[in-house]
């Protein structure tokens, strides 16, 4: 059972998300919050597997709440749910360690798939957002892109061969369970490898690691 916190200042939105999740027996909504401060307190109290946060909330917005949750409750995955798809929001949320980013206008099936993915240890971006992130990387002009690629390759070269294998599969969007199956490892071992890779790369989450894997050429664009 995936335990979920829903945080949105609009009760109607919370009810809608709760209804969507209620259609799948994998989920249990353990708490709701109407602002960012309530969300942080609810995470500390209920220890959900996933916190779904609206970006625009009173008292403490979703970006700040998500950063605080990742700082104080790192085992809780943070998914940003918003109508806003501006690059600044995406970059800030992912930079603070968010595990996923979904649009409220997306397909309900995407919400279910995304929450299952992050609960399983993967990162998840709405396809529209993923396209923007990849496009931004691909649009890097000349020397800037080449410099990023060189820096990423230097970082990857510091990893062991097995860690590079794991990083490539993280970059391809596989969950810990899927990586374990691909490499014939137990899931706990994969989790340890992923943690080691994040630490050695100096990144906060799998999305940032995936970007390095992409820039280093471990994942096809």
UniProtKB/TrEMBL annotation:
InterPro entries: CheY-like_superfamily, NreC/VraR/RcsB-like_REC, Sig_transdc_resp-reg_C-effctor, Sig_transdc_resp-reg_receiver, Tscrpt_reg_LuxR_C, WalR-like. It comes from the Bacteria. Residues 152-217 form the HTH luxR-type domain. Residues 3-119 form the Response regulatory domain. The keyword Glycoprotein does not apply. PROSITE patterns: HTH_LUXR_1, HTH_LUXR_2, RESPONSE_REGULATORY. CDD domains: LuxR_C_like, REC_NarL-like. Signal peptide: none annotated. Keywords: DNA-binding, Phosphoprotein, Transcription, Transcription regulation. GO terms for biological process: phosphorelay signal transduction system; regulation of DNA-templated transcription. Pfam families: GerE (PF00196), Response_reg (PF00072). GO terms for molecular function: DNA binding. The modification 4-aspartylphosphate is found at residue 54. Gene3D superfamilies: 3.40.50.2300. This is LuxR family two component transcriptional regulator. It comes from Kribbella voronezhensis.
């Amino acid at each position: 059972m995936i335990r979920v916190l829903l945080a949105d200042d609009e009760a109607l939105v919370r009810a809608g998300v709760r209804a969507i999740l209620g259609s799948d027996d994998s989920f249990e909504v353990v708490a709701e919050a109407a602002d960012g401060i309530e969300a942080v307190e609810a995470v500390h109290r209920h220890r959900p597997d996933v916190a779904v946060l609206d970006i625009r909330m009173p008292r403490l917005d979703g970006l700040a709440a998500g950063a605080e949750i990742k700082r104080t409750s790192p085992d809780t995955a943070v998914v940003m749910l918003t109508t806003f798809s501006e690059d600044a929001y995406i970059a800030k949320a992912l930079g603070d360690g968010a595990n996923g980013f979904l649009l409220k206008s997306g397909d309900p099936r995407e919400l279910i798939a995304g929450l299952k993915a992050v609960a399983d240890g993967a990162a998840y971006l709405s396809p529209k957002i993923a396209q923007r992130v990849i496009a931004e990387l691909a649009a890097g002009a000349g020397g800037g892109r080449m410099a990023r690629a060189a820096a990423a390759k230097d970082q990857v070269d510091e990893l062991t061969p097995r860690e590079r294998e794991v990083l490539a599969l993280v970059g391809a969007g596989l969950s810990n369970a899927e990586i374990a199956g691909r490499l014939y490892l137990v899931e706990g071992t994969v989790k340890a490898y992923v943690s080691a890779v994040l630490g050695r790369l100096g990144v906060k989450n799998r999305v940032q690691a995936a970007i390095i894997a992409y820039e280093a050429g471990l994942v096809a664009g």
